[in-house]
Design goal:
The protein has 383 residues and is an alpha/beta fold. Helices cover 29% and strands 28% of the residues. It starts with 7 loop residues before the first strand and ends in an 8-residue tail after the last strand.
Length: 383
Amino acid sequence: MSTPIPDTALQLRSLIRSNGELELSLASVPVPVPGPEEVLVRLEATPINPSDLGLLFGAADMSTAVQSGTRDRPIVTARVPDAQMRGMKGRLDEPMPVGNEGAGVVVKAGDSPAAEALLGKTVAVLGGAMYAQYRLMRAQQCLVLPEGTTAAEGASCFVNPLTALGMVETMRREGHTALVHTAAASNLGQMLNRICLKDGIGLVNIVRSQAQADLLRAAGARHVCDSSTPTFMDDLTQALVETGATIAFDATGGGRLAGQILACMEAALNRTAKEYSRYGSSTHKQVYLYGNLNTAPTEIQRSFGMAWSVGGWLLTPFLQKIGTAAAQKLRERVASELKTTFASRYTKEIGLADMLTLAEIAVYNKRATGEKYLVRPQKPASA
């Protein structure tokens, strides 16, 4: 027996007002009716990724957060520092839905053959507004999950898997043969490690603690460097000598790490240089910043010649750049290896209302390795 479709359902909204106040709330919104090429997905699972938190909290100082409302309809407010309001100008006074990806069951479909073929299927979806109970999608945007795959298993099959595959594909397209990854014990980092082991690619994993290093080594990682140790620079240089990595993807963003990676790349190249050059190695060294775990300014202390670059890297522009056919091949690999290479692990499952409690925010907003949350939009608020 199918579950009745309600007229309205909950959707999480993030609003930054012109007076500098962030408000997070659950809004009742009409459940949309699919057009001919569309389907209605009853969302069952959606992850909290670091990339979701920027839109969710904006530039608010969450240490000022206050919770009000009811258990089922909590409201969280916080102050945005005056110095940060300029960067929020484009979203002021506009309630914004949040959540990049998720998975669920198609419960209603338009009358096109492509849409009707999805009715009753469990699908993964990407496109924003996933912290909600229902989501209208174009049929062609849905990835049908393999038989026997649950929504929870498929909820994270876009952002982290495609980011990890995108890093490897960027490495290849730009002429590098091995890569470096920071915050490497994260869910994304563990996926990247499995990809590189399977594909025979040299990977240097940078972590911030012995526990994280142990986790990756237990998973088969061959090169793990702990940035908290006094021998970090020497360890990193040796790993770069052994792998030949000249491209890095840095999740921390701020601080000195990007510059340290470039310096160690230069040192590794100089160990095999046949002659001295006052301009440094002619081999190009690239660091891409793709996250902002460290919100401090990025510090580059130049000691690595002139053949280097630091830039930004994001998944969506990358997929647009490589084109539909190449992007589809990456998605097909994710679907085929969803329970192995691209499996995600969660420390806790919460409902939409639980997302707006100060206790849960204090945990998932830390963006700590090994504390990934899964949101269950149909789950009632915890008692």
